[in-house]
Amino acid sequence: MNKIAVVILNWNGSTLLQQFLPSVMQYSENATIYVADNASTDDSIEVLKNEFPSVKIIQNKENFGFAQGYNEALQFVNEPFYALVNSDIEVTENWLNPIIELFDSEPKTAIIQPKILDYKKKTHFEYAGAAGGFIDKYAYPFCRGRIFETVEEDKGQYNDETTIFWATGACLFIKKEVFHELNGFDSDFFAHQEEIDLCWRAFNLGYQAKFTSKSVVYHVGGATLDVANPHKTYLNFRNSLFMLIKNLPSSKLFQILFIRMLLDGIAACKFLLQGKFKHFLAVGRAHLHFYLKFGVCFNKRKSTFKPNYFKIKSIVFSYFIGKRKIFLELF
Q1: What is d(CA 250, CA 246) in angstroms, rounded to the nearest whole number?
Q2: Residues 277-331 pLDDT 10s
Q3: pLDDT, position 227
Q4: How many angstroms separate the CA atoms of 307 and 128, rounded?
Q5: 141-143 sheet: strands from edge to edge
Q6: How far, CA to CA in Å, does 202 sit from each of 109, 256, 304?
């Protein structure tokens, strides 16, 4: 049996499958390739059966979104390592071998992210993940190679193998046993930041996430939900609050949560001043939904919490006030 299962979650993405699946098949000779279909209504299944007959198809009964979609599909995957790969990812030669070597040599490494470059501008990092992710004290995510809207050119500055806090769901490798120990993704997230929550829960249990530049992929980004979509704003703000209540130590929970909500209010006002009224409403809707789901999230808290989860206190302050827009300028 192959060690790695490459599992691509698909929803009405037949065009993306035709464009990007060939590179996965070409460079994944030591993996089993699956497409987990979220009840697509386009011709995705026909395309897979006719053009990619060697790919194994898992058909979910409905569109469960990213989180539950993977939870449902991975019940049928037996390989010891999962590669969860977006349908708009182009992979490169030898992208899997460094991952297997890391997993085999480091028992505590449970999650790995490759270098993620922009498919449309291959000299630069891609927004979702870049060279590995971190969060600040208030759960605002940022990456080596990308802070807010500033995306760096890849000049080899992150050509290393290092511990990170979270790996992007665009291309995330995780040990099967750890994924199921964590009970998979939180299905209440539906999509966006569920991978950060997963990594945070793994961190609280003593596992490590790693980045390796020896594995490189290219990501289109925004192919399923564009950054300008207010629904993406809603999911990001809501799910950040979900993460905080689930994963923070009790001694810090309400203080940090209160400050985070104030910062969200400032962000909402900024949207309003920019004329982005739908995004302003999306932040309000995110907070409303958070209040409604507060009890559900609180009951998901575990007994194990680790301190020092954040790299810096406030990425918002560093970026907008301190004008430090590059990761290497933060320290």
Answers
A1: 10
A2: 999 999 999 999 999 999 999 999 998 899 899 999 999 999 999 999 999 999 8
A3: 62
A4: 25
A5: 133-135, 141-143, 146-147, 150-151
A6: 10, 21, 10
Are the CB atoms for 43 and 106 separated by under 8 Å?
Answer: no
The neighbour count for residue 3, using CB atoms within 10 Å, is 15
The token duo for 127 is 């927004």
Distance CA 108, CA 105 (A): 9
Handedness of CA 203, 207, 208, 209 (dihedral sign): negative
Q: Does domain 4-219 have CATH number 3.40.50.170?
A: no
Average pLDDT, the chain: 96
Range(s) within the chain of domains with CATH label 3.90.550.10 = 4-219
DSSP per residue, 181-250: HTTSS-GGG-SSSHHHHHHHHHHHTT-EEEEEEEEEEEE--SSSS-TT-HHHHHHHHHHHHHHHHHHS-H
Buried b (16+ CB within 10 A) or exposed e, 191-230: bbbbbbbbbbbbbbeebbbbbbbbbbbbbbbebbeeeeeb
Residue 246 banded pLDDT, cuts 50, 70, 90 = very high
Q: Please state, in angstroms and rounded to a whole number, the distance separating the CA atoms of residues 71 and 187.
A: 8
Model confidence at 225: pLDDT above 70:
no
- Residue 251 one-letter amino acid: S
pTM (2 decimals)? 0.95
Which CA distances in Å does 219 have to 20, 197, 317, 326? 10, 21, 29, 21
